[in-house]
Amino acid sequence: MTDNNNEKHKIVVVGGGAGGLELVTRLGRILGKKGLAEVTLIDASSTHIWKPLLHEVAAGTLDETEQVQYLAQAHRNHFRFRLGKMEGLSRAKKEVYVSPVYTESGEQLIPGRTFAYDTLVMAVGSVSNSFNIKGVAEHCLFLDSAAQAFKFQKRLVEAYIKSHVDQNKHSDKPLSIAIVGAGATGVELSAELHEVTHLLAVYGLDQGGAVKITIIEAAAQLLPALPLKLARATQQQLVKLGIDLKLDRRVTEVNRQGITTHTGEFIEAGLKVWAAGIKAPDWIRGLDGLETNRINQLVVDEYLKTTDDNIFAIGDCAACPWPGHEHTVPPRAQAAHQQATTVSKSIVNRLAGKGPVKYVYYDYGSLVSLGKYSTVGNLMGNLMGTVTIGGFIARVVYLSLYKMHQIAVHGYFRTAMLTLSNLFRRGAHAKIKMH
Question: What is the CATH number of domain 2-126+280-351?
Fold first, then answer.
């Protein structure tokens, strides 16, 4: 089945994460609305949630109205959405191959399709890197997608209820949760889970304090992306919350009962979350000759072009050079946002017969939220240099990053209406999802 019905310039974006969704929305408004190009988004999911919020989805504290329906977004912004997972590419034919879509019962819902393109943008994001450690894939939960986050949330509630029943039976076995990886995802998830235990206690599922949350990290400090001072401040806050930190512990094996480290220590855990390291999806490696690095990222130049001049890559799946630094541009939401803006300009220029726009990464710092307890980070700018912030100001800046993404996707008016709507909903709905 081939999707190729007119002679307009065909722009295909694979992946509807932060960068991909912002890109098709922008191109739809600029090119699609005027009939200058046919813009198509392909994604394996039907909805979008900003990835930095997945820890809140996993904890059950995120309002489900934060999800963006791709079909509705496409209708409002003059691009097309096609559900499915990319499985192959022909650079010679300029075609993308998408696998069939099946229902939960295994019935084929949509057949495999072929999409022709003139310009292709890969924005498929990243997945967790298990580093081939024994037992990780079988026994750990992941937070790479909304579907995985919802799966974790369901398992969390089930485990909490089971533990509550065991407590009533005078069992002294606590609910234990182990998070491998002390980067932003692991740290933010731990604080959110601590808050959830208190919310569940309010709803009558009182554990008597018998919930144990442990973070396991191979490095000697948590939050390697932040300065040591901020990492230590965060560490102190987590210790105050009663979260057990196992630093300088490299995981060697995971089984159903728990996690073994290189020191021989065994950490028992009923729920195990893997948040240590990322890589681009394995199927990208060797994708019709496109150059990739050791973690499967597509190697791009200063214009975000891959080996093929007709193919761009943005976001976590792109290994983008960062002049003056030993490593590539870090996989952050701010980088994906900037790259989407740059590539949109390059594509508009391409249709006008002009050259591409060079990508320059501006690092505005890092922020880590510990839910209602604290927010820490550092901001970077030309006027003030690097500034350390915390508390209320840091929380406001952290929330503003998400608002910037919403504005890029929905515009100012709709973002304002969504914000007001959520404020009213909080007073009428439960603070945590229980199903």
Answer: 3.50.50.60
The residue ranges of every structural domain in the chain are 2-126+280-351, 136-274, 365-428
Q: How confident is the model at residue 373 (pLDDT cuts 50, 70, 90)?
A: low
Q: Could you give the CA distance from residue 101 to residue 124 in angstroms, rounded to a whole number?
A: 17
Distances (CA, A) of 24 to 13, 141, 329: 7, 31, 22
Is beta strand 211-216 parallel, antiparallel or unpaired with respect to 244-246? parallel
What mean pLDDT, rounded, does the chain reach?
A: 86
Kindly state the DSSP code that residue 270 receives in the 8-state scheme. S
The pLDDT of residue 128 is above 60: yes
Kindly state the DSSP code that residue 29 receives in the 8-state scheme.
Answer: I
Superfamily of domain 136-274: FAD/NAD(P)-binding domain (3.50.50.60)
Other C-beta atoms closer than 10 Å to the C-beta of 4 total 12
The burial class, CB within 10 Å (0-12 / 13-18 / 19+), for 383 is exposed
pTM: 0.87
**Residues in CB range of 186: below 8 A, 6 or more apart:** 179, 180, 215, 217, 222, 273, 275, 276
